[in-house]
Amino acid sequence: xxxxxxxxxxxxxxxxxxxxxxxxxxxxxxxxxxxxxxxxxxxxxxxxxxxxxxxxxxxxxxxxxxxxxxxxxxxxxxxxxxxxxxxxxxxxxxxxxxxxxxxxxxxxxxxxxxxxxxxxxxxxxxxxxxxxxxxxxxxxxxxxxxxxxxxxxxxxxxxxxxxxxxxxxxxxxxxxxxxxxxxxxxxxxxxxxxxxxxxxxxxxxxxxxxxxxxxxxxxxxxxxxxxxxxxxxxxxxxxxxxxxxxxxxxxxxxxxxxxxxxxxxxxxxxxxxxxxxxxxxxxxxxxxxxxxxxxxxxxxxxxxxxxxxxxxxxxxxxxxxxxxxxxxxxxxxxxxxxx
Length: 339
What we know:
With 339 residues, the protein is mainly beta. It contains two helices and 21 strands. It has a single domain, classed as Beta Barrel (Porin), CATH 2.40.160. A 14-stranded antiparallel β-barrel has the order 1-2-3-6-7-8-9-15-16-17-18-19-20-21. Strands 4-5 form a two-stranded antiparallel sheet. Strands 10-14 form a two-stranded antiparallel ribbon.
C-alpha cells in the first residue's frame, strides 16, 4: 500500500498543479462544433470523464485514439446520451482489427435539438414554423500497439453543424499516445483533439433581397444579397492523464484516473474518477469534473456497469449520470458487443 501511495499522490499532485495556473480570461463561445466535446462513453462519464489513460474497450477511442491499438477483436459500441434541454446525443463506433498492421476505427456522432419554434422580432411568440439544430461528426481512425507498453493512434474527423438551412463544415484531426510503465501498473496518456480547418456558416438562410434605393421608383427593389459569417475553429482540446489499477483481494480491482485539460476556448481544469470492479463482471464508479474550471456547471458523476458473455459474444452495458449544475443532469447508456 505504501508503494501505491508513493506512485499515486505525486502523479495526481502534478496534474492538479498543471491545471491550477489557469486564471486568465477564457475564449468561451468563440468556436463552433461544441458538440464534439460531449463525451459519449457512459463508463468514462461516470468516472469524471477522465478517459485519456483508459485502455480497455472501444469506448476509450473518443478520449485517446491510441487506445484503438489495444483493441484486438472486432467490437461495436452504441451510446445514447439524454443531454440537457431534451437534446439527443448518439454515438456508434466499430473496430476492425488488421492483425499485425494495427486496428482501424469508424465512428459517427449525432446531436439533434428536436423541433424548435421560429421566433422573430416582429413575431416573438412564433411564426408557426419549426426548425432544428442538428450536428454530425464522422470519424476514421487507426491505432497500433507499437510495443508491449506503448501505443499511438490518429483519427480524422468530418464535422458538420447545421442550424435550419445553414451549415458549417470542417475537417479536423486527433492524435494520441498511451504508455504503460508496467503491465498492470501506472498508465500515462495524452491526446490532442480537433485541430484542423476553420469553418464559416453558409446556406439559404443567409440569402436575402433588398432595395438599393427605397426612395427611387422604377428600380429593382429585389436585388439579391448574401450575409457572410466569420470562420471559426472547432474546439481544440489537449488532454494528459494518469491511470493506476490496484488489485483488491483476489476478485476485486480498483482503477484511479485523473485528467488535466487545456482547451482553446475555456479555462484549464482537472477531472478525477475511480472504478471498483468485482471479478470483472460488475463495477461501480464515481468521479468529479471541472476542478479549477471557471464558472463550472459540472461536478459529481456516478455510474455502474456489467460485463459478460452470451453464446460466444462478449457484451458490456454501462450507465453514467453526470451533474450539470443549473442545467440539471445528463444520463448516458452505452452497450458494447465483442465478436
